[in-house]
Design the sequence.
């Protein structure tokens, strides 16, 4: 098994689709890595994506989702769908009961949310805050559960999150 | 590789991001199962049992990680342990869980 880096790799998650550059993949030994230049060359092949790369792509898509959705959710114009909720849970890297603890909810109430029960706007805002916290400081959700201090910041994500949070309403619209 | 060795390697490596990779087939090709890539990783890192993969359609030398998802549904994740330059990599190749409106085969 060997690794290959592919430019223009198209990845889709619950938050949307985007093309990423320099994605490291794992390919079988019998494939010629020199012949693989784009995603099309991997059609029908048994390639796999490393978790570190999956996390990088998912986080970038989640950051785009945060930028687009934070203001509409704050203004009560949008709510979080079940799919988006699942994506947020993945980013936070927690199970349902831990997700409940982060939101101050019982596990049963969290299960209801995942079944599509309507969410109050205050809860949507809290979920977005937790997402923003995790994107700005990876591992902070898990640290919060343990009662510890969060890790260092991701400057780019923190900048986008702060700009989104404090943007005037008319600019965000 | 024997099951005992596979269990040992899985325990040693499953916490490391650089030691797990996921085939897109595992979460893309059966959308009715509603898996996401990171959910599969989270389930593999959680509690479960590793067994030999005895399905007739199983890939040779693959193992089954049997666990429960957030809705307490039995979930089976097929993995293989591949060797590369830096050591072993756990590759998630397939995933299955029962869905109410599903009639698909494994």
Sequence:
């Amino acid at each position: 098994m060997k690794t290959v880096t592919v430019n223009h790799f198209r990845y889709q998650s619950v938050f949307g689709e985007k093309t990423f550059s320099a994605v490291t993949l794992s390919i079988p030994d019998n494939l010629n890595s020199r012949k693989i230049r784009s995603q099309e060359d991997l059609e029908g092949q048994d390639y796999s994506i490393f978790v570190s790369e999956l996390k990088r792509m998912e986080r970038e898509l989640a950051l785009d989702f945060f930028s687009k959705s934070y203001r509409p959710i704050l203004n009560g114009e949008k709510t979080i769908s079940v799919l988006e909720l699942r994506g947020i849970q993945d980013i936070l890297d927690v199970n349902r009961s831990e997700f409940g603890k982060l939101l101050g909810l019982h596990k049963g109430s969290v299960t209801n949310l995942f079944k599509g029960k309507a969410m109050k706007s205050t809860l949507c805002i809290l979920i977005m805050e937790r997402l923003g916290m995790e994107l700005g400081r990876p591992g902070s959700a898990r640290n919060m559960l343990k009662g510890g201090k969060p890790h260092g910041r991701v400057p780019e994500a923190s900048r986008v999150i702060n700009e989104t949070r404090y943007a005037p309403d008319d600019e965000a619209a | 590789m024997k099951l005992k060795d596979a269990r040992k390697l899985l325990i040693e490596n499953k916490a490391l991001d650089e030691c797990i990779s996921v085939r897109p087939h595992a979460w893309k090709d059966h959308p009715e199962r509603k898996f996401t890539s990171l959910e599969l990783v989270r389930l593999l890192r959680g509690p479960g049992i590793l067994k030999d993969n005895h399905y007739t359609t199983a890939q040779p030398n693959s193992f089954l990680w049997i666990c429960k998802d957030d809705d307490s549904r039995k979930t089976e994740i097929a993995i293989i342990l591949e060797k590369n330059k830096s050591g072993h990599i756990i590759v998630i190749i397939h995933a299955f869980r029962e869905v109410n409106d599903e009639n698909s085969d494994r």
